[in-house]
């Protein structure tokens, strides 16, 4: 499955922290049947989902690293 978070702020943090060239924040909906696991440790509000259950996916924000935009 794929890992998502219910926290927009956490998603932004991951997109910026692990960005080499570009990072994205995606938004999607998933039915209960598509949820494989929920983890709330470390405040990450992580949801592991079966990708085929994702619906209404969209790119909410795109981050570009300073290194890639200076070049």
Briefly, what is this?
This protein is of the alpha+beta class. The chain has helices spanning 8-17, 66-69; strands at residues 2-5, 22-30, 35-39, 46-49, 54-64. The mean pLDDT is 85.
Task: Give an account of the 3D structure.
- With 71 residues, the chain is of the alpha+beta class.
- Helix content is 20%, strand content 46%.
- It has helices spanning 8-17, 66-69, and strands at residues 2-5, 22-30, 35-39, 46-49, 54-64.
- A 3-stranded antiparallel sheet has the order 1-4-3.
- A hairpin with a 6-residue loop joins strand 3 and strand 4 (46-49).
- It is globular and about 40 Å long.
- The mean pLDDT is 85.
Features:
20% helix; 71 residues; two-stranded antiparallel sheet; 5 strands; three-stranded antiparallel β-sheet; 2 helices; alpha+beta
């Amino acid at each position: 499955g794929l890992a998502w978070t219910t926290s927009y702020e956490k998603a932004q943090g991951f997109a910026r922290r692990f960005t080499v060239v570009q990072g994205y924040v995606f938004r999607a909906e998933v039915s209960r049947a598509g949820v494989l696991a929920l983890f709330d440790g470390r405040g990450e509000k992580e949801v592991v989902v079966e990708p085929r259950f994702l619906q209404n996916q969209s790119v909410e924000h795109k981050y570009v690293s300073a290194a890639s935009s200076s070049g």
